[in-house]
Design brief:
- By secondary structure, this protein is an all-alpha fold.
- It has helices at residues 5-19, 23-49, 64-75, 77-88, 98-118, 128-131, 138-170, 178-188, 195-228, 240-266, 275-306, 309-319, 325-344, 351-377, 389-392, 398-421.
- The radius of gyration is 23 Å and the shape is globular.
- The model has no long low-confidence stretch (mean pLDDT 85).
Length: 436
């Protein structure tokens, strides 16, 4: 393929990134393998001894695992919705950030469902989900929705990368092993940048963008129905569908900002991941924060005002500083107010400050997922007497924390490996990019 000046400059810039692993990169990979090894040992302990090694018991049957599942599926929205919408609207500034968003979608969707498997007591019966699937169950819907969503995300990433694979295949600027060039040649599908091929990819990307946005909404709506279709206090609500979807897009935007900041620092990509990209995404984050704050206020206001017995117990736990009050306070201040204040003040609209706000917001959104799951399960619908405290109150064990850290480390490792396989900024998209 013939490259223009901007593409040639970009390829030279990214050459060290994808040609080999530097010593710092290898140290980083080895560092990530430590929590992953600990997680593998924790998984072995859980499989051998059963769920007794976790904090989950008769009442609190879900805990960290489900909170992690909701969180990872949520952040996958960064690519599906944000990149899909920006692609359809043909927003020019999206081009340097689109690959980061797409990678977040695919990697998070791979890791998220693993936490569901960790909640299954009999993994040897996992195939029963397919053989004895019940269409009445939202869990069955969730299995098919997430599988379809993952396939769509992979296809979206692949279609957007075909041009780049062709560039890697032909570029003399890259010093690659023969097997890598052959792999890129196979993935490029004989792409030669002809007008017909350009048109085919453009049409396919547009169609897939149109499909993947509603698919992403369906996935998180189905996930919310697992909660909303129960009679549990704090869960039985019609607001959960749009509430979960909005929260997912919001947290995904935060993770996208964090990932952009890290790659900008590590690979010195100031010329590509510019301040305007952080500022534009911060506007999206502020808008979503305001909308998410409205949904949060509506959810708790209606529960508090009606003050039904069991809903009142959950609200009391969330407001009580001796139980979940501090967590609840942090989730709402760092997760709603802080991003709005940072973006609203012009002097604070700087990449570093925006990233700090986004980081605190992402942590707060994870805490929010935890608060959705645990306090409700700790509020049984029937009075319980003469039972052990640990059967009613949930406390995560080292096994659950190890598997949680292992999931985060796996997410970072897959992102690192992906950045060594393809440029983190799409070179082919720079053909009409106008740098500010």
């Amino acid at each position: 393929m013939n490259l223009n000046q901007k593409q040639s400059e970009a390829l030279k810039k990214f050459a060290p990134q994808i040609e080999s692993f530097s010593r710092p990169a290898l140290v980083w990979v080895y560092f990530l393998l430590i929590p992953m090894a600990l997680a593998a040992y924790a998984l072995y302990i859980q499989v051998v001894d059963g769920h007794i090694v976790t904090g989950m018991r008769d009442n609190v049957v879900w805990g960290l695992y489900i909170a992690n599942f909701i969180f990872f599926i949520g952040i996958s929205y960064a690519g599906a919705v944000i990149s899909g919408i920006l692609h359809l609207l043909n927003v020019e500034w999206r081009k340097p950030i689109i690959r980061v968003a797409e990678l977040i979608t695919v990697i998070a969707t791979i890791i998220g469902p693993i936490y569901i498997l960790l909640c299954v007591g009999r993994l040897d019966r996992l195939h029963h989900l397919v053989i004895y699937a019940r269409l009445q169950s939202p869990i069955t819907w969730d299995v098919f929705a997430i599988s379809t969503y993952l396939f769509g995300g992979l296809l979206f990433l692949y279609l957007a990368s075909i041009k780049d694979f062709a560039i890697y295949r032909d570029a003399t600027e890259l010093k690659l092993q023969g097997w890598r060039r052959r792999l890129y040649a196979a993935l490029a599908l004989n792409y030669q940048d002809t007008p017909e091929q350009k048109k085919s990819i453009a049409v396919s990307m547009n169609l897939l963008s149109i499909m993947i946005i509603p698919l992403a909404i369906i996935v998180h709506s189905v996930l919310s129905w697992i909660f909303g279709m129960t009679m549990r206090p704090g869960w039985h609500s019609t607001i959960f569908g749009p509430y979960f979807v909005l929260a997912a897009i919001y947290s995904g935007t935060g993770v996208l900002i964090i990932a952009m900041w890290i790659f900008r620092k590590v690979y010195k990509l100031t010329d590509y991941l510019q301040d305007k990209h952080f500022i534009n995404l911060s506007y999206i984050m502020m808008t979503l924060a305001a909308a998410y704050g409205y949904f949060t206020f509506s959810e708790y206001l209606t529960d508090w005002y009606s003050l039904e017995k069991w809903n009142g117990e959950v609200i009391a736990k969330l407001f009580d500083l001796k139980e979940y009050g501090w967590w609840f306070l942090f989730a709402n201040i760092a997760g709603i107010l802080l991003p709005i204040l940072v973006v609203a003040v012009p002097k604070l609209r700087q990449p570093n400050i925006i990233t700090i706000a986004a980081s605190l917001m992402v942590i707060a959104m994870w805490v929010k997922r935890y608060l959705i799951v645990v306090p409700t399960l700790e509020s049984p619908l029937f009075p319980i007497q003469d039972t052990r405290t640990e059967f009613v109150h949930y406390s995560p064990t080292w096994v659950e924390w190890a598997l949680t850290l292992g999931g985060i480390a796996t997410f970072l490792l897959l992102f690192t490996l992906a950045s060594k396989f393809m440029t983190i900024v799409s070179v082919s998209e720079l053909e009409s990019e106008k740098h500010a």
